[in-house]
Design goal:
The chain is α/β, with parallel strands linked by helices. The chain has a single domain (4-143), classed as Rossmann fold. It contains five helices and seven strands, in the order H-H-E-H-E-E-H-E-H-E-E-E. It has helices at residues 4-14, 24-36, 47-56, 77-85, 104-113; strands spanning 40-43, 61-62, 67-72, 89-98, 121-124, 128-132, 140-143. The chain has a seven-stranded mixed β-sheet with strand order 2-1-3-4-6-5-7, sandwiched between helices. A hairpin with a 3-residue loop joins strand 5 and strand 6 (128-132). Helix 1 (4-14) crosses helix 2 (24-36). The longest helix is centred in the N-terminal third of the chain and has 13 residues, at 24-36.
């Protein structure tokens, strides 16, 4: 592993023993929010997850204008380009895509997404995928077992 950012995230967050939820994607979401201390989160079309996040992190703001973390069940290039061009993502924002291997279409969308030049870090965790636009980092893709 080459990236200190990814190494620390994987070893200190993803591989930590605490389990916050049975569903692996939701567990990654909650652990990631806790690890980074995010304050502004966007969750697209999933009221159940929004409610769970609100219960776990009562201080959290569901802010669609400027996002620290964006959780979606499906992400395609037009949606990413829309939120990126509108300035909703900042340099340290993360996008967590649920169930990237659910079906062939979702996996194809994921694979097209991670080659975009704006995306510098992508992490395939099988149950979900994480992308970042960290400008100071060279483009790298990781496959991590969780």
């Amino acid at each position: 592993m080459h990236s200190p950012f990814v190494f620390q995230y994987v070893t200190q967050c993803l591989y930590s023993k605490k389990k916050l939820h049975q569903n692996k994607s939701i567990n990654v979401l909650l652990k990631t929010m806790s690890y980074f201390g995010f304050e502004r989160v966007g969750i697209k079309n999933n009221d159940e997850v929004m409610e769970l996040v609100e219960q776990t992190f009562p201080h959290i703001q569901f802010d669609e204008n400027r996002l620290d973390l964006f959780f979606v069940d499906e992400m395609d290039i037009p949606l990413f380009q829309e939120i990126h061009s509108e300035g909703k993502l900042h340099n340290d924002s993360l996008v967590l895509v649920n169930s990237i291997y659910d079906n062939k279409e979702k996996l194809e969308k994921w694979n097209r997404l991670i080659v975009l030049p704006e995306i510098t870090v992508s992490i395939d965790m099988y149950h979900c995928g994480l992308i970042s636009i960290r400008r100071e980092q060279v483009k790298e893709h990781f496959t991590i077992r969780i």
